[in-house]
Design a protein that fits this description.
Bound molecules: MU-OXO-diiron
Shape: globular
Structural class: alpha/beta
Distance between the termini: 56 Å
Radius of gyration: 25 Å
CATH superfamily of the largest domain: Ribonuclease Z/Hydroxyacylglutathione hydrolase-like
CATH architecture of the largest domain: 4-Layer Sandwich
Number of domains: 3
CATH topology of the largest domain: Metallo-beta-lactamase, Chain A
Strand content: 25-35%
């Protein structure tokens, strides 16, 4: 049964309830127009926040919804059940898109016992301004609701917050995973009937939120494999995974195994619930993860000193989100241990968390430099409300740090290829182009030469973009960009400008003449021609994304001029 409650308004928020198993109802808050979580999520397809009601002899509600759905969600919930009958409120993790209405639900259901990981309950204490009953759970703990619904909890730290738990219902075989295996995708389909439509969003979501925690993903999957058969994966975002559930899990596993193979590790320490720390940490981690370096995200409040020592000892890089000056003693202990464990030549990066009470980064920066560590990116200082440009800066800073760590290996690889093969491959040539793109306040550009026409109807091109390039984040399915074609006799100034190494978040277009394309990306006034394109699909290779795009419109400025050609001597680098 599917019921639509509430009329679409601007922005369109609707609510769907659907019976998804014995005694089990999904309450899905559909956010049709949400277009952005941060720079990583230029959401083409909105998102959903999924909550679930399980009615055994006892009743459990798994997660709530985003605060923006207050009325719609509470109306739906009270339409389904008398809140006085809710016995348990299970908190998969405490990020506000799922727990934004916990306080409201507890006002209606003050008798409900809140079930969650220890740190989730601690966080809720500061967030819910009323006393509540609680039950702390960890992996293997069970809660019997009666009528066959026995819930088993599985710890899944870092998917996507350190307090994350999954819940498996032995009665229905439904696994509730909150962020994990989710996607930002909003439509009327409750389930994953059409994987082709979902694939790009599923991958983007993994790359942004789960990929940087690849080792945690593998640990969680190992625990899932020990559960009895899973008939449905009830995610917190997007459609529920029923038809292709094994395939989706296998994809997570394969992608994570690939990432976890990386030899180099960065330990990123932060306090998830302080300021914007979580979003900045995720953006930096996603930037690092583009460079074949594995990231360990570590919650400063939870980590044991011995674990800190071990992590810092093996890490090639250490990143620290500044905690508040007035911090808990365990956070202070963790920072002291980090400082005692760091060693010469490690790469480091510091960022403010934006809580308004951050400790200054500079004394720490001096100390790390004096200890012989190398700075991977300049301190990120948060002075204003973060925008897409702030997240872009964090993301690019992470990539810079990762590239610094992998630079020596990249140089070695360049030298190690067969010499004749190098020369032969170098005889392939391409034109010289500048890709330009803009999303909100964030923009980017890149010199490209691996460009080729790929279809006639519709007119389409492919561009190979290295996975660690900043522009890659602007070239996901549905994104639009401009391909500027450089002129044979006039390419040097533009090529020189865009070949420069830009600082994270720097304006690539300062001092360059541009005018806007229909979708806002800058067209370079001194280019010979331009094409406005929309990304249709992406194929993954080992180190590049092959991006296929439809060409929407274009123009040539000089009828007789020729395209600049990129002649190379060897084919093992650009
Ligand atoms: Fe969907 Fe981590 O919240």
């Amino acid at each position: 049964m599917v019921a639509l409650i509430g009329k679409p308004t601007q922005p369109r928020l609707t609510l769907e309830t659907a019976v998804i198993g014995q005694d089990t109802t999904a309450i899905r808050s559909l956010d049709w127009d949400r277009d952005r979580f941060d720079i990583e999520f230029a959401l083409q397809n909105g998102t959903t926040y999924n909550s679930f009601l399980i009615r055994g002899e006892k009743v459990a509600l798994v997660d709530t919804s985003h605060e923006k759905f207050r009325q719609l969600y509470l109306d739906a919930l009270t339409g389904l059940i008398d809140p006085a009958a809710i016995d348990y409120l299970v908190i998969s993790h405490t990020e506000p898109d799922h727990s934004g209405l916990v306080a409201e639900v507890l006002k209606l259901a003050p008798q409900a016992v809140v079930v969650g990981a220890k740190v989730a309950i601690q966080f809720l204490e500061g967030f819910v301004h009323q006393p509540f009953e609680r039950q702390l759970v960890k992996s293997g703990d069970r809660l019997n609701l009666g009528n066959g619904h026995e819930l088993e909890f599985v710890s899944a730290p870092n998917l996507h917050w350190p307090d994350t738990i999954f819940t498996y219902d032995h009665g229905t075989g439904i696994l509730y995973t909150c962020d994990a295996f989710g996607m930002h995708y909003c439509d009327d389909c409750t389930y994953d009937e059409s994987p082709d439509l979902l694939e790009a969003d599923f991958r983007l979501y993994y790359d942004c939120l789960m990929g940087p925690n690849a080792r945690s993903v593998l640990s969680a999957i190992k625990r899932l494999r020990q559960l009895p058969p899973i008939h449905l994966i009830a995610t917190g975002h997007g459609p529920l995974l029923q038809h292709h559930r094994e395939e989706w899990v296998n994809r997570y596993q394969a992608w994570s195994q690939d990432k976890a193979k990386a030899e180099k590790t960065v330990a990123l320490f932060y306090m998830p619930e302080y300021g914007e720390s979580d979003r900045f940490a995720q953006a930096i981690a996603a930037g690092i993860a583009k460079t074949e370096v594995v990231v360990e995200l570590v919650d400063l409040r939870l980590v044991e000193p011995s674990e800190v020592r071990e992590l810092v000892d093996i890490a090639t890089g250490v990143v620290l989100g500044m905690p508040p000056q007035n911090r808990p003693s365990q956070v202070q202990a963790a920072i002291s241990t980090i400082l005692a464990a760091v060693h010469e030549k490690q790469v480091f990066g510091l960022f403010e968390s934006g809580g308004g009470d951050d400790e200054s980064v500079y004394p720490l920066r001096n100390r790390l430099q004096e200890a012989g560590l190398v700075e991977g990116f300049a301190p990120i200082l948060i002075k204003e409300t973060p925008t897409a440009a702030t997240y872009q800066l964090c993301h690019e800073a992470g990539t810079d740090l990762g590239q610094l760590i992998t630079r020596d290996r990249a140089i070695q690889q360049m030298k190690s290829l067969d010499h004749d093969l190098d020369k032969a491959l170098g005889r392939l040539s391409g034109g010289l182009y500048i890709i330009t793109a803009k999303k909100g306040e964030a923009s980017s550009a890149m010199l490209a030469s691996w460009v080729a026409q790929a279809s006639l109807k519709p007119l389409g091109i492919t561009i190979a973009v290295a996975k660690d390039r900043a522009i890659e984040s602007f070239m996901h399915v549905g994104d639009r960009f401009v391909l500027n074609v450089l002129e044979e006799d006039n390419y040097q100034p533009l090529m020189k400008h865009f070949l420069k190494r830009f600082a994270p978040g720097a304006d690539r277009f300062a001092g360059v003449k541009t005018y806007p394309a229909s979708h806002g990306a800058p067209i370079l006034a001194d280019a010979l021609a331009y094409l406005e394109c929309e990304v249709v699909s992406r194929m993954e290779t080992t180190d590049h994304w092959l991006v296929y795009s439809r060409v929407e419109t274009g123009r040539v400025s000089k009828a007789d001029a020729l395209t600049a050609v990129h002649h190379r001597k060897v084919g093992n680098h650009y």
